[in-house]
Amino acid sequence: MEKINVRKRILSANERYALKNSELLAQRKQLCLNMISSPGSGKTTLLARTCSELNTEIRIGVVEGDIQTDIDAERIRATNAPAVQINTDGACHLSAAQVSSALDQLPLDDLDMIFIENVGNLVCPGAFELGEHGKIVVLSVAEGDDKPIKYPGIFAKSMVLLVSKIDLLDGGHVDFDLDRVKTDARRLNKGVEIIPVSAKTGEGMAQWYDWLREKTRQTRA
Amino acid sequence: MHETVVAQSLVEAISAEADKCGAKPISAKMSCGELNGVNDEVLSFAFEALAKGTPCEGMVLRIEHKPLQAKCHACGCTFAVELSDARCSHCHSEDFELLPDAPLVLEEIEFDKE
């Protein structure tokens, strides 16, 4: 019997592409945010509204990840923002190699920042670095206020927590304790910025835009 | 479900090492942090399935979990944090920050070799 020490990072192939993406973005001074949530939390609606309302000041491009269809990319393109759709054919997360080829297809010279909308899943996408500056986790109030403690990984790793569909809180359509979510998320992640929003009514969107403007400005500087 | 990607990378890395030393791998040890979302049962199943027809067929995969570490802002100590009861193991303060989670690492391989 012979034992050898390997000490090799298992996801090194993905990490190589992630590094390539982050170097490209750093060189171009373009902010890139990786948006992660369960399916149906409203990521695309949030992004479409963000693209529409900010398009005169921040030029946004979007990489869309889904198992099938280009429905999401079409919704983004309808706002006049460029979008590239990746279909993972069953895979539960985007890989850095897929994002690398999607970035090649975006008109990067005409953009200030890029959103990556990951495949809807609160677990797997958190394990694959894509070369982004940070992760944005989206949690809709309909999913329940226990998600930060049930899925701690993604809440611990994210720069921003967008609590979405807060219009549903009016009229008591869902039981959701926003204070509990804030406490649980901050216990996992001291610095996380928590912004409750409704892409339907527009509530909270101004605060999200302010955060995004500031982050884009810092990256452009 | 991303365990299949992890399993495939393991099979490739171990097979490459087996080619290099010209011996049959018997077992391997990998380590991972707590936030990787790796489920042992799913990973072992995927590894076994993907190993078929490769030098890794029939080998044993051992998975070591490295506890998530945190630094306490109150007493300054570093401790292994239990997320279901997130407080400092020394002073019980809830004022701490999580340290980076351990990556997925292929640690060692044992070969059947004289």
- The span between the termini of chain A is 57 Å
How would you state the average pLDDT of chain B, rounded?
A: 93
Main interface: chain pair and counts: A-B, 32 and 35 residues
**What's the CATH architecture of chain A?**
3-Layer(aba) Sandwich
From the 3D structure, determine the CATH topology of chain A.
Answer: Rossmann fold
Main beta sheet of chain A, described? 7 strands, parallel
Amount of beta strand of chain B? 25-35%
Work out the radius of gyration of chain A: 18 Å
The main sheet of chain B comes to: 3 strands, mixed
In percent, how much strand structure appears in the residues of chain A?
Answer: 15-25%
H/E topology pattern of chain A:
EHEHEHEHEEHHEHEH
Order of helices and strands of chain B: HEHEEEEE
Oligomer: heterodimer
Shape of chain B: elongated
From the N-terminal CA to the C-terminal CA of chain B, the straight-line distance is 38 Å
Rg estimate of chain B, integer Å: 18 Å
Descriptive account of the structure:
The complex is a heterodimer of chains A (221) and B (114). Chain A is of the alpha/beta class and 221 residues long. Chain A has helices spanning 12-28, 43-54, 71-77, 96-105, 147-150, 152-157, 178-188, 205-220; strands at 2-9, 31-37, 60-66, 83-87, 113-117, 134-140, 160-164, 193-196. Chain A contains 8 helices and 8 strands; from the N terminus they run E-H-E-H-E-H-E-H-E-E-H-H-E-H-E-H. A 7-stranded parallel β-sheet of chain A has the order 4-3-5-2-6-7-8, with helices on both faces. Chain A is globular, with a radius of gyration of 18 Å. With 114 residues, chain B is α+β, with helices and mostly antiparallel strands. Chain B is built from 2 helices and 6 strands. In chain B, 35% of the residues are buried. The mean pLDDT of chain B is 93. The A-B interface holds A 1-14, 91-93, 95, 123-124, 126-128, 149, 152-153, 156-157, 187-190 and B 1-2, 5-6, 9-10, 13, 17, 21, 23, 26, 30, 34-38, 83-84, 86, 94, 97-98, 101, 103-113.
